[in-house]
Fold this protein.
Amino acid sequence: MAIKSTIYKAQVAIANIDQSYYADHSLTLARHPSETDERMMMRLVALAMQAHQLKTVCQGDGILAFGAGLSDPNEPDVWIKDFTDQIQAWMDVGQPEERAIIKACNKATRVFLYPFNHATHVWFKGIENKIARLRNLEIHQVDSSVSQALAGMAKRTMHLQATILENALSITDGEQNIEISFHRLF
């Protein structure tokens, strides 16, 4: 018998001061049996950082949702689709292979990757030349110690406040506050 996903509920209040985007999101996350709390929380980070595109790109006429991610390699971890079903933003966490990155760039208007492993620099050196021509791709590295700290916030029911200022994210659950800086690799 296959192990089922674990369901998490998150209320996330996003205040993106950089983009003048303020919204509350009620989210359901299905954590795949092979997914860690760290990776699941990084999906929330990717969503918080790019949620403003609902307003800035889709003018409010779009859908922000979690994709199948680990369950289906043809879907992102998070995406924003407009009402014509065009993928405006494709967001993945971790270190996908270059073929998957190129495929995502062909399917979506913009692609955002958030690697968080301590060996990200080795992964990036291996794919850097192969992705050099991709103009709709951004890669923002998160320090592995920060992503590990985020894992400590994972609870079956979460109430989070995400504040984005000067391209840095502060996320709090009322008990702990984690500051996340992003190092742009590409």
About this structure: The first strand starts at residue 6 and ends at 16. The chain has one domain: 6-184. The chain has a mean pLDDT of 94.
